Amino acid sequence: xxxxxxxxxxxxxTVLAAARGRAxxxxxxxxALEEVLGTLTPVLDRHPEFIEAGILPRLCEPERQLMxxxxxxxxxxxxxVNRGYRVEFNSALGPYxxxxxFHPTVDLGVIKFLGFEQxxxxxxxxxxxxxxxxxxxxDPAGRSDGxxxxxxxxxxxxxxxxxxxxxxxxxxxxxxxxxxxxxLFGQYKRIVNRYEAGVLTxxxxxxxxxxxRTEATGYGTVFFAREMLxxxxxxxxxxxxxxxGAGNVALHAADKIQQLGGKVVACSDSSGHVVDDAGLDxxxxxxxxxxxxxxxxxxxxxxxxxVFVANGSVWDVPCDVALPCATQNELxxxxxAALVRNGVIAVVEGANMPCTPEAVAIxxxxxxxxxxxxxxxxxxxxxxxxEMQQNAARASWSFGETTRRLEDIMREIHDHTRQTAEDYxxxxxxxxxxxxxxxxxxxxxxxLAQGVV
Length: 453
Hints:
Blueprint: H1 2-22, H2 27-37, H3 41-46, H4 49-52, H5 55-59, E1 64-73, E2 79-90, E3 96-102, H6 108-125, E4 131-136, H7 145-159, E5 168-171, H8 178-192, H9 213-230, E6 240-243, H10 248-259, E7 263-269, E8 272-276, H11 282-291, H12 296-302, E9 306-309, E10 321-323, H13 333-341, E11 346-348, H14 357-365, E12 369-371, H15 373-376, H16 379-393, H17 399-425, H18 431-450
Parallel strand pairs: 3-4, 3-5, 6-7, 6-10, 10-11, 11-12
Antiparallel strand pairs: 1-2, 2-4, 7-8, 8-9
Helix pairs in contact: 1-2, 2-6, 6-18, 7-8, 9-10, 9-16, 9-17, 10-11, 13-14, 16-17, 17-18
């Protein structure tokens, strides 16, 4: 047993070193690799056949990486050029599936990190979908509808040749909502001369979209958190909750929390954060942040009980439950220590890897329930897979039916993650290891069955 464990540790170290050498400077991608592979030694101990088949080195290398120029013309007639990406990471379980992110911070390393995370998240849903991710360093904030449309059309003109409902199915992410998906779909349809509704998800409900897809990631995160809390005999009733971000995920998570009796007292955006001890007025927030793409300071001006804080951190606000729903590495060790001091009992990730490794260690050492994004925010992609099912059947589902299916999926992900953690680590609360191992096993077994490809 000692020899096998030593071999597994050595194999993981070798794979990580090779991956770092092959992709220098892609720090966030390296972080994602280390976070996952660092939990897989117990699996390799039991299944040395995964070492023999080279599963890890193949898993860490995308099947295809696309990078392309996106030229477009702004409203002043000036030619602009952005860089577009699509990383088709793994197709062992199905066609590539994952969102598109339009944001100035997007580069190849970010897309690879997101695509790698997507492998395990998609596997956990049990929906038969592979993993991919894409986007561009384009910022839609402050751009007119015409500029966004022209950018999306140029982006899709290149990307369309790599897509298909049985090949690669993008969705939205940061900076890509229903508006952007609409422009992308329109251009795809125009180029290929086919109405392939299943080639993009996150569409409007009037043209192939699924009710509750907009709410799905936020709702799913809360459903997962509810299951976690229930293992301690707790629920959301009467709990103070802080959510970071103020987009679709954050605000719909807040909406579901308040439906379950919790009180969301703070949220944030890039300009600062707002604290409202009376509980956030979500209708006002959605009107400001989603409908008009405004700033949080406006909420505080219109709401007497609210205070806007331009400096400081939303994680300094005392709460029982924290949901980081903004972006990667937003919650650091310092923030985690503050949350623990203020009595947090659970932290559940609504974004992709928003907590740094130091923060996760602090939560785990303090006995705080911690739900990793691979499991907790899988509701979005799970519902995208349901949208694909709806499109394939030429059917139309209701909001209630979709939400019930989402709730069942998130409960299954929670239970499977917790059981896997207990089976491989002896600690059912180790959701990080449980999610990584459960997702890995599904993908690795499929890769093993399909040969060296």
